[in-house]
Amino acid sequence: QVQLVESGGGLVQAGGSLRLSCAASGPFSSSFMAWFRQAPGKEREFVTRINWSGDSTYYADSVKGRFAVSRDSAKNTVYLQMNSLKPEDTAVYYCAASGISSIRVAGYPYWGQGTQVTVSS
Fold first, then answer.
1. Beta-strand relationship, 10-13 and 115-120
2. What is the pLDDT of residue 52?
3. How far apart are CA 20 and CA 110, in angstroms?
4. Beta-carbon-side half-sphere exposure of residue 15 (alpha carbons within 13 Å)
5. Residue 76 three-state SS
6. Which residues of the chain are under the pLDDT cut of 70?
7. What is the reported pLDDT for 1?
8. Which residue in 4, 10, 32, 35 is a FRET match for 109, CA 20 to 30 A apart?
9. Closest of 86, 118, 99 to residue 34, by C-alpha
10. Which residues have C-beta within 8 Å of that of residue 27, sequence separation ≥ 6?
11. How far is CA 16 from CA 43, 58, 83, in A?
12. pLDDT at residue number 64
């Protein structure tokens, strides 16, 4: 069974940076990895996705230019570098995996447990 484990969340001041990690294990053949986030009282929303070779990325407009997704295939790990953080970036961040490219929650069968990111003003 595919397992995804996120780490790296925490509390940071506005304008600061954090790097999230997502380690994948198990019979892993998913081609695409993504990050989603969910703020209190809101629906889970797409943040970014990357293909497994790392040469194709896609970002939500709200994070474009501030966040960067990358992967280390040797470690089966995907990273989300978050810069210039804003209070509205506060959410639980989830890693997800799929065999297809999608920006929809329903497109991802595998999910991590989430990691909390809190940005103070």
1. parallel
2. 81
3. 17
4. 1
5. coil
6. 27-30
7. 77
8. 10
9. 99
10. 1, 2
11. 25, 22, 6
12. 98
Cα–Cα distance list, 50 to 6, 70, 96, 101 (Å):
16, 7, 11, 9
Please name the amino acid found at residue 102: S
What is the rounded distance in angstroms from the CA atom of residue 104 to the CA atom of residue 19? 23
What is d(CA 96, CA 36) in angstroms, rounded to the nearest whole number? 8
Whose tokens are 């978050």? That residue is: 82
Which tokens in the block code for residue 50? 């990357």
Burial (CB count within 10 angstroms: exposed 0-12, middle 13-18, buried 19+), residue 105: middle
SS3 65: coil
∠ at Cα 53 (51, 56), nearest 5°?
45
Nearest Cα neighbor of 92 from 117, 74, 113, 111 is 117
CA quadruple 63, 95, 55, 100: dihedral positive or negative? negative
State the residue for tokens 């497109």.
107
